[in-house]
Amino acid sequence: MFYKPDMMDAFADYDAARYVIFGVPFDATSSYRPGSRWAPDAMRKASANFETYNQYFDIDLEDLSIHDIGNFEPYSSVDDTLEELYLTIKPIVKDDKIPIMMGGEHSLTYPCVKACAEAAGEEIGFVVLDAHFDLREEYGGIRNNHACVSRHIRDDITDTYVTIGVRSGPREEWVYAMENDIKYYTSDDVREMGIKKVISEVKEYLGCRKIYLSLDMDALDPAYAPGLGTPEPFGLTDIDVREVIHALAPISVGFDVMEIAPEYDNGISALLGTKLLREFIAAHAASER
Ligand code: MN
Ligand code: MN
Q: From ligand 1's centre to the CA of 130, what distance in Å?
């Protein structure tokens, strides 16, 4: 089911690992530009660029127990892929490891949140960085479309849901968000309030809940991450996103970096996504020190 891993600094074997990285090369419901299936390997390649030492946290990734399982082999159908992925992640979270997924399209987040929520034994929150609400019930006739992932997580798994960086959606989604009291921060809100204020409000809203943290890379402005399935201008900065990851990694039970489509740029989106993944691990590990 998996093939050979090669993420840099993922030297631990599975049993010893605290962090378990895996790729899911699946983009079958992509609506605009497919290609996120190539992201996991592009991210592994990009990881070779970075020093193992993280000065901000005084953490050396080399000293941590990180395991890269390799790439999950998807089915052609999204429903089968999601179901099989759920069954694959379940034992990982049961073993008290932190799953870190490299997408693939955003629909893949649903089974990860579901597995993490079940293993947590308490209600967990879902915090997502995304240019889009992803609150549609179905899209293009497909319920588990990437544009519907947050809707189903809210409906099926947790009411504690926050989205940061949103700036695109049909009128109905904005109305739905208002009518359902959804906690969201647009990228303009972030710019006006400052990311630190946004983070402190989000933390207050979450209380002592653990969360699953999902990064749809299109939350970032395309100036930072142009290689995406659905790029959307006027987005978050790389530093905004890093701040959120630094602040929320310590309460996260799972994390993912989704929607990078490496064929549309010169490698920068995969580099940034990989760096943010490494920042997540460093921030999480620092909190357990
Ligand atoms: Mn999304
Ligand atoms: Mn998006």
A: 5
